[in-house]
Design goal:
Layout (H helix, E strand, L loop, with lengths): L3 H18 L2 E2 L7 E6 L2 E6 L3 E2 L2 H10 L3 E3 L12 E6 L8 H13 L1 H4 L5 E7 L6 E4 L13 E7 L2 E7 L13 E5 L4 E6 L1 H4 E5 L9 E7 L5
Antiparallel strand pairs: 1-4, 2-3, 3-12, 5-6, 6-7, 7-14, 8-13, 9-12, 9-14, 10-11, 10-13
The chain binds 2-oxoglutaric acid (AKG) and fe (ii) ion (FE2).
Length: about 220
């Protein structure tokens, strides 16, 4: 028979296991790595920022009112086979962890950004055929001034591709393309002049990939 303290041990073990499985954001600065892209552009990657995000992913797939998006967007004609939902400033987000993530990002980037992240754009890539073509987030102020766009990646791993704009003819810009594999819980942050001097894309893939959701946090007046 298991005595009282034995029961307590079992309960404690149980709760420790639960804790380990509980969804949580790690310390943002720990494991954050910056790559300078030249011409004032940079990209930060923080692998595994969100731990145990399976339930959040499932909840977002289920409960976000996704809309089909296949139209012209950004500054060129962009084919956008994916589902989206935009949460404007002040609109309640579907899970409190997303508020926590946005606020942690606002604190971390305060000195560089000078204003908080306030909107959340969500995209659902159903499989490898869904994608977003080359573009910069240049709708609004980001067409003229530096900004920061922070993206939390959930679900299946996909590649975020980055390449210098205008065939790399922007003075000081690094002359190569980058491919960042983004896995479940990873954070990627594009900053400085990145939206103006670089383009990014989520390329289609013939790999058998499941659904992926990206949550993009932006400042007011930037899409
Ligand atoms: O899904 C992503 O990680 C990128 C999305 C994106 O570039 C956009 O919606 O502007
Ligand atoms: Fe974008």
């Amino acid at each position: 028979m298991v005595g009282y303290s034995g029961v307590m041990d079992l309960m404690l073990q149980g709760s420790l296991l639960d804790l380990a499985d509980e969804m949580s954001l790690g310390r943002l600065a720990a494991g954050l790595h910056r790559t300078e892209l030249g011409a004032g552009a940079w990209v930060d990657v923080r692998p595994g920022w969100l731990a145990a995000g399976d339930e959040l992913f499932a909840l977002l797939v289920r409960s976000v009112p996704w809309r089909a998006e296949r139209r012209t967007m950004y500054d060129s004609v962009v084919d956008v086979p994916r589902l989206t939902r935009f949460y404007a400033a002040g609109e309640p987000l579907p899970h409190p962890l997303l508020d926590t993530a946005r606020d942690a990002l606002s604190v971390h980037y305060e000195a560089e950004l000078g204003e908080p992240f306030v909107t959340a754009g969500m995209c659902l890539y159903r499989d490898g055929r869904d994608s977003v073509a080359w573009h910069g987030d240049r709708i609004g102020r980001s067409n003229d001034v530096d900004t920061i766009v922070a993206i939390l990646s959930l679900g299946s791993a996909r590649t975020l591709a980055l390449r210098p704009r205008n065939g790399g003819r922007i003075p000081g810009s690094l002359q190569k393309a980058l491919r960042l594999p983004l896995a479940h819980g990873d954070l990627v942050v594009m900053g400085g002049s990145c939206q103006r001097t670089w383009d990014h894309a989520i390329p289609k893939t013939s790999e058998p990939v499941g659904p992926r959701i990206s949550v993009q946090f932006r400042v007011a007046g930037v899409r």
